[in-house]
Amino acid sequence: MTIQSPSNQVYSTEQISLTFSVNQEVAWTAFSLDGGINRTAVADVTAVLFAKNGQHTLTVYAGQKPDVASSTTVSFTVDAPQPTSYGQPYPPVELHLPVQVTDFFQSAFDFFLSPVFLTLAIVFLAASIIVVILVVLIARRSISNENNQVL
């Protein structure tokens, strides 16, 4: 795994390109800036990081299984000029990707709490209860008919 950008240097902008490549097939890739949460990333796709002035450490992870990963780390410094007027404050460190990349678990969580899924789950549960009631009623009728024939 190789990190092409950022590299170990001083940047004069708070917008830092993140580009890395992986030399083997992997199931997932992610990165962490300054020990923060791991965020999903895509190899060979340039993303933009916003980093405030100061020293930063970027770690990129890649793996075949969720709990097994290799990683590589790069350190870089941001020394961007500060505004001379009382303009808008600089944004916090955040990620802006040029492609839609979502975390699998967040997507699953959003899906299972969606109104469509909850409606389908309630309908399925109601249909299951109706089937169980019908089976019990048919079984009782069958037993009742057998008892009447014996008499």
Summarize the structure.
Helix content is 30%, strand content 34%. The protein contains two helices and nine strands, in the order βββββββββαα.
Please compute the radius of gyration using only Cα atoms. Answer: 28 Å
Point out poorly predicted stretches.
Answer: none
Approximate shape: elongated
User: How big a fraction of the residues is strand?
Assistant: 25-35%
Write the CATH fold name of the largest domain: Immunoglobulin-like
Q: How would you spell out the order of helices and strands?
A: EEEEEEEEEHH
Roughly what percent helix?
Answer: 25-40%
CATH superfamily of the largest domain: Immunoglobulins
What structural class do the secondary elements suggest?
alpha+beta
Report the CATH C-level class of the largest domain.
Mainly Beta
What is the count of helical runs? Answer: 2
N-C termini distance:
82 Å
Calculate the mean pLDDT score and round it. 82
Q: Write down how many β-strands occur, each being a DSSP E stretch of 2 or more residues.
A: 9
Q: How many structural units, i.e. domains?
A: 2
Strand order of the largest sheet: 2-8-7-4-5
CATH architectural name of the largest domain: Sandwich
Strand count, sense and closure of the main sheet? 5 strands, mixed
Task: Write up this protein.
Helices cover 30% and strands 34% of the residues. With 151 residues, the protein is an alpha+beta fold. The strands form two sheets. Strands 2-8-7-4-5 form a five-stranded mixed sheet, with no helix packed on it. It is elongated, with a radius of gyration of 28 Å.
